[in-house]
Amino acid sequence: MTTTPVSAPVSAPLSAATRRSIVLLSLATFASMAAQRICDAMLPELSRVFAVSLGRAALVVSVFAVTYGVAQLFYGPLGDRFGKFRIVTFATLGCCVGSVAATLATSLDMLVWARLLMALGAAALIPLTMAWVGDTVPSDQLQEMLTRTGLGSTLGIVGGQLAGGLLTDALGWRWAFAFLTLLFGVVGLLLWGDWRRQQAAPAEEPAEPAVAAAAPQGARPGFVKQALLIVTGPWSRVVLLMALVEGAAGFGVLAIWASHLHRSLGLSLSLAGTIVALFGLGGVMYMAVGRHMIRRFGQQKLVLLGGILVGLCALVLAFTPHWLPAVPASLLAGFGFFMFHNTMQANATQMAPGARGTAVSLFASSLFLGQSVGVVVAASLIAQIGTGAVVALGGAVMAAEGVFFAWALRRRDA
Fold it and tell me: Taking the model in full, what pTM does it have?
C-alpha cells in the first residue's frame, strides 16, 4: 500500500447519517478496548482475592487475548457475507452478557470463562468497524475517518485502565465489570437502533457500497481462498508479521505496566492505573494531530520515530526510582505507539480491498494473538528477571520493530 494520497480527487462530504454511524462504531471500539484493558490494574487484587500468583491471575488477560485473536478468523468472513454493521451490533450485545457473567463470578476459573465469553463478542468490534469504514468512506476521507474510530479504541485504553484501577480500589473488582455491563448494553442498543434505520432506508443510504462494487456475492471466493490470497502476498505477510510483534511487545507487555508501578514503587492500584491510562491519552493526542503528521512525515518516519519513542519511554518507566518521571513517559509512549499503530491500520485496510473484512480480521488476529503471547511470556519472565526488565525488553522490541518496518516501507516504495 502507498501512503494515502493527498492530491486525490475530492469526493462528496459524508452524509450526517453515515457520520452518526461512525460515531456509534467508535463507541463500540471504545467498549472493546476498555474490556480488553480493564483487568490490567486489577491483577494484583485478583491475585490477592483468589490467592493465586500474579502470573495465574494474568489468565484473565491472556485468555481474553487468545480468544479475541482466534475469533477474528471467523468474524472476517461473517462480516463480508452478512454485513459488518449487523455483526458488530449483535456482538456488542453479546459482550453485555459476558460482562454480567464476569460480575457474578465466584472463582478465578469462572472469571476466566466469563472473560472468554466477552472476548468472543469484543473480537468483532474493532476490525469490522475498520472494514466497514473502509467499505463506506471514499479513499480521500478514509485516513481521517479511521483516525476517528481509532480515537474510540484509544480512549478505551484510558477508560479501561482508569475504571479497572479506580473501581477496584474504591468499590471492588466486580464493579469494574458492572461498568462494562452498562457500557455494552447502552452502546449495543444504540447500534441496534442505527442498524434498523439502515435497513429501513437501503436505497437512500447503502451501508456498504464498496463491497457491492468490489465483487458480486456470487463471485466471492470462500474464506480459505481469500485468506490464502492475502497471506501469500509478500507485503501482506510483512504487515501480519509486524502486527504479531506489535501485539506481543506493545499491547502484551502493557498489561504489566500498572503491576510494575504498584510493586516496584508501592503505588496504589488507582494511581498506577491512572499513570498507565496516560498511555491512551498519548494516543488521543496523536489522533488529534495525526492528519498533519501523516502529511508532514509520511509512513516511514512515523513508524521509525514512533517505535524509538516507545522504546525510550519504556526504559524510563522500567527503571525510574520515583513515580513522577513515569507520568510523561507513559504519555509519550502512547503518542509514539499510535504513530506506529495507526500506520499499521492504514496498511491493513488496503491489503485486500475486495475482501476487506477478511484482511482486517487477519490483521487483528495477528495483533491480538501476539498480545496473548506477550502476556504469557511477560508473566513467565517476571519471576526470573523482574517487572522492570520485562517492561524495558518490550520497549526495546518496539524500537527495533520501528526501525525494521521503516526499512520495509522504504524498500516497498522503492
Answer: 0.69
**96 is written with which cell numbers?**
453485555
Cα distance between residue 245 and residue 226, in whole Å: 23
Tell me which DSSP letter residue 353 carries: G
Distant-in-sequence, close-in-space partners of 88: CB < 8 Å, separation ≥ 6:
25, 28, 124, 125, 128, 129, 132, 191
What DSSP assignment string belongs to 187-244?
HHHHHHHHHHHHHH-TTTS-S-HHHHHH--GGGPPPHHHHHHHHHTSHHHHHHHHHHH
What letters, b where the CB count within 10 A reaches 16 and e where it falls short, cover 50-73? beeebbbbbbbbbbbbbbbbbbbb
Residue in this structure with the C-alpha cell 459524508, named with its chain if needed: 14
Cα distance between residue 412 and residue 414, in whole Å? 5
Give residue 384's pLDDT band: very low, low, confident or very high (50, 70, 90): confident
> What string of H, E and C letters represents the secondary structure of 88-132?
HHHHHHHHHHHHHHHHCCCCHHHHHHHHHHHHHHHCCHHHHHHHH
Distance CA 275, CA 330 (A): 7
Count CB atoms within 10 A of the CB of residue 300.
18
Q: How far apart are CA 188 and CA 180, in angstroms?
A: 12
| The predicted structure's pLDDT at residue 223 | 58
Measured CA to CA, the distance from residue 394 to residue 112 in angstroms comes to 25
What residues contact residue 50 under an 8 Å CB cut-off, 6+ apart? Answer: 57, 107, 108
For residue 66, what is the enclosing H or E element? helix 59-82
Angle, nearest 10°, between helix axes 173-200 and 16-37?
160
CA-to-CA separations, 8 to 4, 11, 138, 192, in angstroms, rounded: 9, 9, 10, 35
User: Which tens digits make up the pLDDT trace of 104-140?
Assistant: 988 898 999 999 999 999 988 888 887 787 777 766 6
Instruction: Answer yes or no: are the C-beta atoms of 163 and 36 closer than 8 Å.
Output: no
